[in-house]
Structure of Pirin-related protein:
Amino acid sequence: MEGTPIIQIKPLGFPWETLDPFIFCVHHRDDFPKGNDNMGPSVSLAGRTIGQDFSGKEGWNMYHGKTMPGFPYHPHRGFETVTVVKEGVIDHTDSLGAAGRFSGGDVQWMTAGKGVLHSEMFPLVHSDKGNPMELFQIWLNLPKRSKFVQPHFKMLWKENIPVLNEMDSNGNKTEVNVIAGNLKSFHGPEPTPDSWAAEQGNDVSILTIKLDAHATWTLPKTDAGVNRMLYFYKGSSMKIAATDISVYHSVQLKSDIDVILQAGVEDCYLLLLQGKPMNEPVVQYGPFVMNTEEEIREAFAEYQKTQFGGWPWPNHEQAHARESGRFALHADGREEKM
């Protein structure tokens, strides 16, 4: 689009289209009901394809869960998952023996590396009220040199994620959570050490942005040659670089130009994914992301042979005690409690 920082505008599908170095992004919003004694839905599951429920019936999904919503144990290799929770509770377990519970405002950054099994369940911890859930899962590629690093995860607790708050000239507020990268004087938490995001020159940034109704805010420019995508996922309408944008659209931007964002009559919510491209071949098949077809075949063969270490937990839909707080238990035995 000539004379504007906007390169392209597209409606959002499922999953969301991403740019190198990102390879996948989904937005889940579920208005889960009250939880039963097993932290599953306290209502009938009739009419759902259990084990493969993405119907959106009554405003929520079971996903691959049979008794509890979520994603029972499944493998990954060759990339990283960044799980950004805006509301709700997630229970994590993996084949390394690591585990955790995290909730609204927290982010889990997991390097799958050479291969890991993990489970992401959504326990309905409240039995006296609904259990709304909103999250993004973002897949960030690993460069060829890091495809076979040791898997591990890191928690970015909400208490440690910097938040920029700015007012425009009319007193309307913009709030930005700096999950990764740098924004003005704010620096996101350190990602996992083998991540493409760990190298400052790669300019990886993950931001969640909320503009109050009628607010105006300028997204600062960065270096040229960086891929930059804004996802407008909640609100009614807004302007980006003086161009009208409808909700549930992505906007690809030139990275070396400041961009003015203007909210309409409702609060507007956006996700920014940005980074220097790897410019490496990408071959994805389901949960494996490698550089060649042969590497994909090798990943399947190794998974069938080793199960990436096997599953040390009693349940495929592993969840923690209802009364458990936020915590992370790492494979080396180190434990964090929040």
Q: What stands out?
A: The CA atoms of residues 10 and 109 lie 28 Å apart.
